[in-house]
Amino acid sequence: MTHRASRPTRPLSAATPSWCSPGLSEEQLVVVGRDWVVIDTETTGLDPARHELTQMAAVVLDDQCQEVADLAWETDDGHDLLRRVIADLNPYVGAGIVVAHNLLFDLGFLAPLASPARGLLAHPPRWLCTMRLTGGTMTLAALARNQGVMLHDPHTAAGDSRTLAEVLARLIDAARNRGYSAIAGIARVSPASDRARASSAEPAGNGWAEVVLELDHVVPIRPISREQRDAVADVRVSLITPDKGPANPVELANAVQTLRASGVARTALQVLLAECDHISKLEEPSKARTTAAD
Prior knowledge:
Layout: E1 36-43, E2 53-61, E3 67-74, H1 79-88, H2 90-95, E4 97-100, H3 103-110, E5 127-129, H4 130-133, H5 140-146, H6 157-177, H7 185-189, H8 194-199, H9 207-214, H10 226-239, H11 249-261, H12 266-274, H13 285-293
Parallel strand pairs: 1-4, 4-5
Antiparallel strand pairs: 1-2, 2-3
């Protein structure tokens, strides 16, 4: 994975997008000593509270998109080794960028194992989600085909992380060759839809759409309780805080877990949101509790 000689670069101004951590899109595309940590997981299901992690892998690329590390773990290796693998990623994650295709899902399973004492994956300082980057509907296989990358042992963590690493290198190379100097240039050369690009500047409240999709789709058989209303109001604080910027994957995963623990399913949350003229007008926790008590 090599780069052609760079052309004169031009800066790219962009609002804070939903596909990367706040401020990352304005950082330089190539920074000496900064790595790209591409991760992937395989699990027994979709819910971190009920299902288990079975595979985890990471491919680390340096600032020139050359591979410098390749780490992998499977269930038979034991969780002690998994924690060591996560800890081994610390030097790369600390000054690097964590990349995944549906990062919210991967960190939902990894964050409980990656406590701050063991690994920075609990709260990666910089992150980029290629699924969000491409509009939220494009699979890794489709993105790989779009970029002319062959699949490596699909549906395995080791294979998918390697496939995504090659896709990322292609996107970075394309952005550089088109003269973009900032990471936001990756979005300009990606197969993202016009709608995805337009929505990339939406406020932090757009995290609600992702939370809704992560909840169980069941028909509620009881009225929405006071506790459930309180849970939604509390989650609102973590997702929509003035000047905070878009919610990161860890915050979204925590929001989903909080609502699940309170028994809030997808339909119930949609009903609560429908009671508001706009998501930004959702009641503050104190007001919601007062209303519920009346």
